[in-house]
Amino acid sequence: MNTDKKAVKKRSALGRGLGALLEDSVEVQNNTPESEIGVVNVMREIPIEQIETNPYQPRTHFDREALEELAESIRQQGLIQPVTVRQLSRNQFQLISGERRLQASRQAGLTTMPAYIRTANDTQMLEMALIENIQRENLNALEIAHSYQRLISECDLKQEELGERVGKKRSTVNNYLRLLKLPAEIQASIRDNLLSMGHARAIINIDNIETQLAIYRRILNEELSVRKVEELVRELATGSPDTKEKKDKESAPLSPVLQDLQNKLTSHFGTRVQIRTNERSKGEIKIPFMSDDDLNRILELLSL
C-alpha cells in the first residue's frame, strides 16, 4: 500500500524540518521488528485510555469555551482530524501532537480516537511536537516564542536552522524570542491576548523595565494603537531634532543624580521627561504630551 508514503508527503507541507523528521521516523520503524512495537506508520483507532499526554506539549493554555465547542462538534460529527502518537509498547502510546483534540475527545465522552502512529526518540518527539504545533495550531505570540526557545535550547538548533525548520526568516524568529525578555506582567497580557504582537515589539525597544511597564499600562488604559506606541517609543528614544539641538547648545551635562531623576520621571509619566541645566545650576523640567487626552493623563498624575 502507498498509504504511508502519502501520509508522509502530506505532512511535509508543514515544513521541511517536520517532513524530514517523519521520513527519519519511517526509516527507524521499517528497521524495527514488528513484534517489538506492533503495527506502526499507519492510522488506526486507539483506546483513549492508552494515550498518555505529551510531556513536551508547547501549549499550556486552552480556552475553555473553545474546547467545549470542539467537544460538541466531536459529539455531533466525530473526530475528523486524527492525532499523532508514538508507540511505547503494544498497548501504550504517547501523544506527539493533538493535545486540544485529545482533551476535547475525552470531554465528548469518546472511548477511542483515530491516530497516526509514529516512532521517535525524545529529541525527535519534542521537535516534531513543537514544529507541528507552531505550524498547525492557533498559538499566541508568547507560546510561539517559548516553542522557538525550546527548539533552540533543547533540540540544539541555531536561529538559522530554526528559521528553515518553521519556514520563517531569522529576523521573525528573533522578534518572537525577544518577547521573552519582557517583564512577566507584559508577557501574561500577550499570553491572554490582551496585548498584540505589534504592541509588544514596540515596547521591547525600550531598555528600562519601569518605562516598559508605564507604556504597557497606557496601552491598556488609553487603547493606544500600535502606530501611536511606535511614535511614543521613538520619542522616548531620541526626542525631536529641535529639542536635541537646543539641548546640545544650552544644556550642561546632567549629573548622575539628575540623570537618575530624569529616568524615574520618564518612567512615572510614561513620556520622555527632560531635565536641562546650565552652568549656574539653573534649569527646567520638560514633560511633553501627544494629545489632549495625554495631557489630562499627566495632570491626573500630578493631582492637578
Can you walk through the features of this model?
- One of its GO terms (biological process) is positive regulation of sporulation resulting in formation of a cellular spore.
- Residues 44-134 form the ParB-like N-terminal domain.
- Keywords: Chromosome partition, DNA-binding.
- The chain has 304 residues and is α/β, with parallel strands linked by helices.
- It folds into two domains: 3-173, Alpha-Beta Complex (Conserved hypothetical protein from pyrococcus furiosus pfu- 392566-001, ParB domain), CATH 3.90.1530; 206-301, no CATH class.
- The protein is 57% helix and 12% strand.
- It has 16 helices and seven strands.
- The strands form two sheets. The protein has a five-stranded mixed β-sheet with strand order 1-5-3-4-2.
- Helix 7 (141-153) crosses helix 9.
- The longest helix has 15 residues, at 16-30.
- It starts with a helix and ends with a helix.
